[in-house]
Amino acid sequence: MADNVGTATEGMLDRLVEQFASPYDFLRELVQNAMDAGSDRVDVELSVHRSEVDDEVVFEIVVADAGHGMDEATIDDELTLLFASSKRLDRTMAGGFGVGFVSVFSWAPARVLVHTGARGGAWEIEFDAQRRFTRRALATPFEGTTVRCFRVGHASEADAVAEHVRTSLWRWCRFCPVELGFSYDGQTERIHEEPPPDDAALSIAYAAGDTTVRVAFAQPARVVLLRHGLVLAEAVPPALLPRGLASSSTHLQVWADSAAHSTDIGRDHVVHDAGRRLIEARIVDLVHKLRLQLADAVEALAGASTWSRARHERYGQLHAHLALEREQIARLDRRPLLRTADGGAVSVRTLADQALWSVVARIEPEPDGPASSVQGVPTVVATDDDARTWLDPWLATRGMVSAPAAELLRTARPLAQPDPFVATISDLARRAGMASIVRTGELDGGWGFEVLGGVVLPPAHADRRVVLWLDERNPLFVAARACGSPAALLLAMAAEMGADVERVVEVLEQEDL
User: Fold this and answer.
1) Rounded to whole angstroms, how far apart are CA atoms 38 and 244?
2) Hey, how many other C-beta atoms are within 10 angstroms of the C-beta on 47?
3) What is the pTM of this model?
4) Residues 6 or more apart in contact with residue 393 via CB below 8 angstroms
5) What angle do CA 51, 52, 54 make, to 5 degrees?
6) To the nearest whole number, what is the mean pLDDT of the chain?
7) Which domains does the chain show, CATH number per domain?
8) Overall average pLDDT of the 174-201 stretch
9) How does strand 179-184 pair with strand 41-50?
10) CB neighbours (10 Å) of residue 439?
11) pLDDT tens sequence across 136-146
């Protein structure tokens, strides 16, 4: 019967070891054991011992903590429960089992040595490659636990082994509430990262009992699920969060630490049970609140009494996040979220009423001179990057576009003498419905429509085709006048301004042009 029990337990050990995705996941388990033992620090060290065989070495990984350690009863009832004694080869299936410690065998060590002490006693437990153990009492008592794992390898593997150890510690243990250090080749580094999102654009947190949830709009988008600071799962939002947050998935960071999280036996998959659903509901609530907080922050900035380049960078950053949340925030178009050239704030809805030609001028923050402005062309403070990432897409929802004020608002300087060729162009353009009259002069930017007082808009931005100005230096105009042929010029202008090209062709055919 003992043999059957031993065989069954051996199979269970094999299955437990196979549950761990990486052979270095045992480091996570030992760090968790240290925290459970009340330790405030854990030291991990990799040593490489030379042997007498060429290139052969023995790798030693040491994990030491300052916790309360194990007494004889704990060693018998938890640590060695599933393992065969070197003096007694049968195993008992009674009680529970220490899955955390079993994970050390996923690294396939040739030898594992455990030193532990508690309540005035100290012990050494040695495991061989077949997972049999020998226990010895130590004469000198101490507190804490040190686990040493030994594996034979090659010297050329040393740096790779070190990187695997480092990667495992950073992946699973960087948020643990202990002082965690990794030493190798004379260098020691601290394994520690502050819970995000301390540097996020905007964040909000919830804390109660053993649950802490932090949500932020930041990039890169990431979700980390933890229990007592130990990472259980980490991925992009769609992989770990409810579908209801899909609209925020490109810029959402979540850090959720709770004892409500349960895992499978391999410890790297969070079970979707009632505890996890409770945390997800908390995350959804925080995201809703953060959206409103984001809109409030943008509105406060837009209406600030003073402005600076640094303040504008913050304003643009928040607007870029707001662009991803507009569909989720009610009545956003009515809020004064855009800063105007005069230092005020305006809503997109009001801006649409002011933009008679559906055009908005923009100026850089802290311009060198006064902002250009004209009635019917409102001016906002925005950079080219703002226009590309969030301003123009938002204006487009109201049928508007933006352009730099220096390019958008131009003054035409008319020619002193009338030009018969221009008179012909003007007549053809009027008959084709392109403009009431065409004038020439010096006009930065080539050509456009007059709005008020000689100020000209580019043709694609004006729908009141009254006075069309041509720059006499425009290469196409120069060529057309030199050849005495207006057809190519009229067709090019019609195509750019979105005029009826067929009507232009009809007028040109009537004139045999």
Assistant:
1) 39
2) 16
3) 0.76
4) 323
5) 90
6) 84
7) 2-190 (3.30.565.10), 202-287 (no CATH), 331-407 (no CATH), 410-510 (no CATH)
8) 87
9) parallel
10) 19
11) 999 988 889 99
